From TrEMBL:
SUPFAM superfamilies: RNA-binding domain, RBD
Record protein name field: RBM45 protein
Superkingdom of this protein's organism: Eukaryota
UniProt xrefs under PROSITE patterns: RRM
Gene name, Swiss-Prot/TrEMBL: Rbm45
């Protein structure tokens, strides 16, 4: 990616600060600023790294900023870094970090926007659940049934559930009698299936249509 600027427009440092040299990334909550720098220094000269922390507890939110000296370096980092970082250009500094974080997560779940590069917390190392939330009361499996009042589109649903790692297949069907849709989703690990159900049950897709996601018996021992 190359970014061209007119010489006639004078200094562009302020513009670069705001729009072209800072990237926003999703990181494991255990990362320090040095860890973040180490991961991204291969793409160019880093001016600073910062990690967004909870104002009350001081704990990392699993999000951070990396600012490069040149726009081309930021562009290269976005293009070449591991997909798990979900790197995007950061909003200008005059927009509050809370607002940007909200937009980041809200936009991440719109399949029509960015396909496989959608920023969404899906790696197990990026996600922490309270113990009460992980007590699964129902039999679990690696297979899920997705039910929708509206027809589902194979490619879009695949892109949505592929946000969680280890997706093996997505088979979309349509009810010929009432035009509703359903699909069978299977992951290679039960952990991925549990997380997909946790995140996507009740998710509105398309907007106004809530998906129902339940476990399907896959023939394996659910105690595993």
């Amino acid at each position: 990616v190359f970014i061209a600027q007119s010489r006639a427009s004078g200094s562009h440092r302020d513009l670069e600060d705001e729009e072209l040299t800072r990237i926003f990334v999703m990181i494991p909550k255990t990362y320090t600023e040095e860890d973040l720098r180490e991961k991204f220094k291969m793409y160019g000269d880093i001016e600073y790294c910062s990690i967004i922390k909870n104002k009350t507890t001081g704990e990392s939110k699993g999000l951070g900023y990396v600012r490069y000296l040149k726009p081309s370096q930021a562009a290269q980092a976005i293009e070449e870094c591991d997909r798990s970082f979900r790197a995007i250009l950061a909003e200008p500094k005059n927009k509050s970090s809370e607002s940007f974080e909200h937009d980041y997560y809200s936009n991440s779940m719109r399949p029509e926007l960015r396909g496989n590069t959608l920023p969404f917390c899906m790696q197990p190392e990026f996600c922490s659940f309270e113990k009460a939330e992980t007590r699964i009361q129902e039999p679990v499996s690696k297979r899920l049934l997705v039910v929708s009042r509206l027809p589902l589109i194979q490619e879009q649903l695949f892109a949505l559930f592929d946000l969680i790692p280890c997706l093996e297949y997505c088979d979309v069907q349509r009810d010929a009698h009432n035009n509703s849709g359903y699909a069978v989703i299977q992951y290679s690990t039960a952990a991925s299936a549990i997380y997909a159900k946790y995140k996507l049950h009740g998710f509105e897709y398309p907007p106004g249509n809530r998906l129902t996601v339940v476990f399907l018996e896959d023939g394996n021992d659910s105690s595993e």
